[in-house]
Structure formats: structure tokens, C-alpha cells
Amino acid sequence: MLKITLSLPPSVNHCYRNVTRNGKISRALSREASDWKKQAGWLALAEAKAKKWKCLPIGVKVVMELYVYWPDERKRDRNNLHKLLPDALEGIIFENDQYVLIRDMDFTVDRKHPRVECVIFAKEE
Questions:
Q1: 34-63 pLDDT, tens per residue?
Q2: Residue-wise over 17-56: b if at least 16 C-beta within 10 A, else e?
Q3: DSSP three-state, residue 74
Q4: 44: which residues sit within 8 A by CB, 6+ positions away?
Q5: Which one of 20, 47, 58, 120 is most buried, counting C-beta atoms within 10 A?
Q6: What's the pLDDT tens digit per position in 19-39?
Q7: Max alpha carbon distance in the chain (Å)?
């Protein structure tokens, strides 16, 4: 089991921007999302090394339990955490986020230290 504490990622609405290439519009990560993803990856790598965590290979189902601490009482959709968060951990904690089973365990408000705590482990069949 591995526990990682990260800052809250940007919402899906702030993760992507439209870009035009060769006259075609496509989507790309926003600067905010790209910066968050890099920072989260470095923090996850440090925690994995400290705990001697081995990256879970393709084919191993991974359970990721999320405990969310929002900065205020505003209504938020926890599903917004389900896109960028596993993307940031891919190749560090697990090889492919296709095998990640996300469980929203709890949420509350922590005005002083908003964050998401991830408890990660291989699913037993």
C-alpha cells in the first residue's frame, strides 16, 4: 500500500485548451494542468522511492482510494479528479491508468491545507 498526498488538481474545465494546427482544432493540456501533472509526478516518484514501491505492471488492477479536502464549501464534482490524477501517476505508480479503479472514499473542507490523499494498492482477485 502506498499513500500519496497531493495538491488538488485543476478541474477538467481548466485542464485543456483549444489549439489550432494545420487548420484543425484539437485539445492540449493547459499550462496549469501541465505544471500540476509534473509536480504531482515528482512528489509521487519521491514517495514511491522512499517506500520502495515497485511500479505495478500492465494487467494488475490498481485500487486508488481518494480522500478529498476542499478549500471551501462550494459545490464540486469529485469526478473532476478522475482524469488528471491517474494520468500524473502513470509510469510511476502503475504502468497504465486503464487498470486503475478509483474509489471516492470521503470529502470534507480544510481551508488551511486543501489536498487529495491517495491510498493505492494492487487489487486482489
A1: 999 999 999 999 999 999 999 999 999 999
A2: eeeeeeeeeeeebeeebeebbeebbebbeebbeeeebeeb
A3: coil
A4: 4, 6, 88, 89, 92, 93
A5: 120
A6: 888 888 888 888 999 999 999
A7: 48
Query: Cα(52)–Cα(70) distance, rounded to whole angstroms?
Result: 30
What CA–CA distance (Å, rounded) separates 96 from 90?
Answer: 6
Alpha-carbon gap, residue 28 to 36, rounded angstroms = 14
- Environment class of residue 59 by beta-carbon count within 10 Å: exposed (0-12), middle (13-18) or buried (19+)? exposed
Q: What angle do CA 32, 14, 22 make, to 5 degrees?
A: 85
Query: What pTM, to 2 d.p., does this model score?
Result: 0.88
